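thoughts on both lines:
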Amino acid sequence: MKTSWDSPTSAPASRTVLWVSAHPEPDSLNGRLRRDGIAALHRQGHTVVESDLYAMGWDPVIRPENLDRRGRVSPTRVSAAGRRAQLEDAQPDDVAAEQLKLRRADAVIVQFPLWWYGMPAILKGWFDRVFVSGFAFGTDPHTGRRLRFEQGPFRGARALTVITLGDRPASIGPRGKSGELHELLFGLLHGTFAYTGMEPLVPWALPSADFTDADSHARARCSLRDRLVRLFDEEPLRYREQFTGDYTDQWELQPEVLPGQTGLSVHLR
């Protein structure tokens, strides 16, 4: 995954996929789907790099000693400390290793069980510690461009969310009690993936996961495999660009864009 200030290079001969997973039990349904999915990607000839956060013992909590390996941290300026560590190559080793995986990835798959309508804390902490200013967003040090959305550093990388959840299928539909799936995951799809320049794909979800039997698991495996076959071909969710006129300087939609309409879906083109 090339940042916007990297020198252009020729297209890689093969694709590299980073699979980030967050489930504490390797023999769970999530664990089986992860292994099935990675095997399917290998059969397509892709290289898969894993970040199994529970198996890694990932520390999700931002603390002074894991913000800057030189220990130069002001507790009142966490964001600034993280940016300084990034720009001065002083990130802790665990963060630097994850950032290297991201830099090399043509696609990122983020897999997790939906707990309380959000991602597990260990995964949220992965984003908090790895996606710091100077790496996933900020300002291009060479051009001064603001690195977000269509100018984000991870332009061209695909991002697929793979989730299991307890809701019934209809409950994550247009009139479902839990809301449309891409709206339910708006913070991740728009606020993280699209914000950093990635191309978020329609999430893959397995509802009623607690009631999965052998037959439904087989269907889920086939469904996920089919999505992975199209990983680099399917149309992404097209969120509106920030710097091309749809938004005011206060980041609100211009009055002439979908007048009278509100809600999260207005940010999709």
Remarks:
- Residues 214-229 form the longest helix (16 residues).
